[in-house]
Amino acid sequence: MIAASAGVLPLDGGLVEPALSAPLSTHADVADRAFVKRGSGEIQPVLALADISLSFGGVAALRDIDLEVAQGEIRAVIGPNGAGKSSLLNVISGLYRPDRGRVRLGEHSFAHVPTARLAQHGVVRTFQNLAVFKGLSVRDNVLMGLAHRVRAGFLRQIAGTPLARRIDTENRAAAEDVIGFLHLREVRDRAAGTLPYGLLKRVELARALVARPSLLLLDEPFAGVSLGEKRELAAHVRNARDLYGATIVLIEHDIGVVMGLSDRVAVLDYGRKIADGTPDQVRSDQAVVDAYLGVAHADETELAL
Ligand SMILES: Nc1ncnc2c1ncn2[C@@H]1O[C@H](COP(=O)(O)OP(=O)(O)OP(=O)(O)O)[C@@H](O)[C@H]1O
Fold first, then answer.
1. Which domains are seen in the chain, by residue range?
2. What is the pLDDT of residue 155?
3. Cβ(59) – ligand 1 distance below 6 Å
């Protein structure tokens, strides 16, 4: 087995009922609408990393990484412990400045992504450790996902005006929409701290989605979630792409869930990208097998997923 958590999840048939009715996309659909067309007709990925390298002292966390993420794609980055997954997500979200290389978000290219302006570029990131406010209701937690839209100082200035009321009404409508979408209506008034962990992860996803990001970065979204909750959460992540239109990049340890959910998977090992392709391509890639097992294998070896 590739890893202790690498069980096969029946994701193809195990989707929970979506809150909205729309056809679910196939991998072929994603390939069709893979890139944003520029005026010139040139195609452009939503996210592109070029030649990214990053070291900590003598440790090369990332080496010469190229990665493209197409619009509407669910793109996973996997790899053994210490492979560089978190470093990569931190570079994309601007928490780390790479030593070399560029990050392009849509039309904008950065040597160091401005983390404080991520939302302006349509990018939202979740963190591995839950960042839910336990004393707040589910609804208020979701509303926090819109807090960046209007500066607090401006809100204070316009308090009580029709504009303030309109912003509040629009925000509440957006929150209700995503609460319904993620099947959280029954718990919307409950304090988040009273909910089980799997539901909290869903609240976090709701808070990330409420701003309708064009690119959603998920940091180990399935960590600590039970098997049944993983299936449900995976269906919600897929629906976030299919019905909310978010392009999704996720780093994840649970390879089983990744293989069932992702359109393409990039594999890191010791900071290098050693494979990049569809789940089937990656699953049978000898370098990937070797990286996970840490030993050389006969050519016919396949990942036992
Ligand atoms: N802030 C940091 N300071 C020093 N070294 C770091 C820092 N962040 C990452 N590293 C090192 O960079 C390498 C890649 O780490 P990273 O956390 O990106 O890997 P990972 O694939 O996310 O690992 P895991 O799956 O265990 O979370 C490791 O050798 C790690 O020790």
1. 1-122+213-305 (3.40.50.300), 136-212 (no CATH)
2. 63
3. yes
